[in-house]
Amino acid sequence: MNKIIYIFLVISFLMGCKQETKTTNILQTQDSLKIKNNSKKAIATLKEFYFSVYGNDENNEKLNKKYLSERVLQRIDSLTSDDENLILDYDPFIKGQDYVGEVIKKTLRIDPLDNKNEYRVSFLQFGQKDEKRINVDFLLVETKDGNFLIDSILNDDYLNFKSSTKSIKEDSNIDGYRVIKEVKSDINKDGKKDYISVFGTDWNKEIKPTDSKFFKVIIKLSDGNSFTTFTNNNIILPYFPDNVASGFSDIKVKNNYFTIEQANGIGNYIERSFTTFKFDNSENKLFLHKYSTMTTERDSGDENEIISEYTEKDFGKITFAEFNPETIVRK
């Protein structure tokens, strides 16, 4: 009798395990089908987005809100709302400004990435010989009604929504400063976009002769996940109401060098200065490379021009943060 009971229990256990395995397999199959269906729907959304927005050669200044999440729309708006201080000066969905619609349609390819709801869209922009494919990596989010929206561009510094790589535009009103000019360049040559930004204050509503505009230069070097920030408030001289020159003029970049240009003057006197810094890979720091001035004096109709140029041999090693044109040591 005991033997019969034992056999019955073993059979029951095996049948239970078999049923549990069958149930587990059914659930896994259902989950797999759901993921597969969601993947198809997400890919269809991306394809529809590119076909409807970039599938022709008409200007699509406003992105199709049907495909973008609210946070993407808000971020794009914040980066493009000020025409005079445009931060996002390219289309992040094509990583450029121009394209040929038919070429994008013909070469469009969409592949799932390793993580859930992440996809890579690749295409050619113009269909030229030896042209490299553009890769745009997306994170999509599923809505309550089962549709998908683009919620992040993973390989874009402005739209990946990582707290450590937020747009410098978001810091533009700190301490009363706003972005005057920003240049993107790979200063330290690590393949990541770095930012050279000039911030400035505004005039008071009623400008007095004693008023001045003040400036700061901020460098943000990216390693892809975070920024190393360098700040200097002395490179650009204060701009006063009687200044007969332009004040801050431009930022020029070449390789791992960048130059801040400015012009200041009063009456018959104008001084143009060119302050050049370089990134030193061996020390992982920014140093003053060259400081040049071109002074023009107009007196009694005559014009005299004096050019001065100083290099590291004259002033030694000066870091970006330490530089001050008023106190620079010249031998």
Describe the structure.
The protein is α+β, with helices and mostly antiparallel strands and 331 residues long. It has 2 domains: 1-161, Nuclear Transport Factor 2, Chain: A (Roll), CATH 3.10.450; 164-315. It is built from 4 helices and 13 strands. It has helices at 2-54, 70-80, 101-107, 312-315, and strands at 109-112, 118-123, 134-142, 148-153, 178-185, 194-200, 215-222, 227-232, 247-254, 257-266, 269-280, 285-299, 302-311. The strands form 3 sheets. A 5-stranded antiparallel β-sheet has the order 9-10-11-12-13. Strands 1-2-3-4 form a 4-stranded antiparallel β-sheet. Strands 5-6-7-8 form a 4-stranded antiparallel β-sheet, with no helix packed on it. Strand 5 and strand 6 form a beta hairpin.
Strand and helix map with partners:
Blueprint: H1 2-54, H2 70-80, H3 101-107, E1 109-112, E2 118-123, E3 134-142, E4 148-153, E5 178-185, E6 194-200, E7 215-222, E8 227-232, E9 247-254, E10 257-266, E11 269-280, E12 285-299, E13 302-311, H4 312-315
Antiparallel strand pairs: 1-2, 2-3, 3-4, 5-6, 6-7, 7-8, 9-10, 10-11, 11-12, 12-13
